Amino acid sequence: MTFSTDNHRGTVGIAFPGEMGAAVGRLLVAAGRRVVTTLEGRSARTAALCRDAGLDVLGTFGELVRSADVFISLVPPAAALDVAGRYAAEIGDQAESAVFVDANSISPSAVRRIASLVAARGVDVVDVAIHGLAARLADQGTLYLSGPRAGDVEDLFSGALRIKRLGDEIGAASAFKMLMAGMSKGFVGLFVEMAMVASEMGVLDELLAAYREYYPGIVSVVDRLLPTYPRHARRRADELGELEETIESLGLEPRMICGARRNIAAIGRLALAERFHEQEQSGWSVADVLAKLHAQNPLRRLQTV
User: What are the DSSP E strand ranges found in 87-194?
Assistant: First the structure.
């Protein structure tokens, strides 16, 4: 398939435009693509993200599937298989020319199950991993691709994102995403644990100053990521669960990743974004997040999960 910059060809569908989906859509629109989505069952916040990104909104999920030459699935891990199933049920006569892009943070085995489901309808699948925060995607993001049709998706995003090909195997990009996510989320999980212990001991300020002096690279990662956790901790804990599954599938025992997942899941259970709406609107700092966390120290709330 050759994609045209003509807005009437090469239509891209995105399900669903949360922060990352809207960021991807905005880049494609800026590159001259027509990008469509649906707000069926979505929130007012999602509607605002779509409007700001310049996406065309269709009435139903079925219309979205049938309008898209390239369909990008960008949903929480638990919803990835359901979206693929709905796509397979709705795709019509254009199946042989369509491409399904799985850009979810799921395990290689999960993306292979999705590929099998979608391929049964004659649709080619490309495995995609998006690395980078939605807010900095244009200047810091990288798109990792794998699968026999990866070149088509590379053409689609050419000039919009930095791209790296990881071969023709479905699952390679997802595996890479798992490993990248494990490192960044592992940093956050360990940092939060040390900060909560320091808060209990009354030495948090001193500890943070020492971290900044001796481990500036790690602290810069935390500065960038931790303020996003009040909204996204639950989803990121689910992503670490996918990494655990990946490690176990290799006959290995996940250890440190289990602890990071438990810490991040505990942050998610506190629902900080929902409970502190005013703070969410004005933006979080690392100090804000740590103060709110220490008020209900999540280390006391950990369960064996």
Answer: 99-102, 124-131, 142-146, 162-165
Predicted TM-score (pTM) of the model is 0.86
- C-alpha span between 154 and 159 (Å, rounded): 9
- Residue 225 has a CB neighbour count (10 Å cut-off) of 18
Q: With bands split at pLDDT 50, 70 and 90, how would you rate the model's confidence at 159?
A: confident
Closest among 31, 30, 26, 32 to 8, alpha carbons compared: 32
- Tell how strand 124-131 and strand 142-146 pair up: antiparallel
Q: What is the pLDDT of residue 3?
A: 46
Q: What CATH number does the domain located at 176-300 have? A: 1.10.1040.10
* Residue 23, CA distances (Å) to 132, 205, 286, 297, 300 in order: 11, 35, 23, 33, 36
3-state SS, residue 73: strand
Instruction: Report how far residue 14's alpha carbon sits from residue 70's, in angstroms, rounded to the nearest whole number.
Output: 9
Domain-by-domain residue ranges, the chain?
Answer: 12-170, 176-300
DSSP state of 16: -
Cis peptide before 16 (omega within 30 of 0): yes
Pick the CATH number of 12-170 from 3.30.160.60, 2.60.40.2310, 2.60.20.10, 3.40.50.720: 3.40.50.720
pLDDT score at 5: 41
Per-residue pLDDT tens digits for 252-263: 999 999 999 999
What's the rounded Cα separation, in Å, for the pair 282 and 239?
27
CA dist 102 and 115 (Å) reads 9
CA distances from 193 to 223, 261, 266, 301 (A): 15, 12, 11, 12
Domains 12-170 and 176-300 share a fold: no
Q: Residues 250, 209: contact at Cβ < 8 Å?
A: no
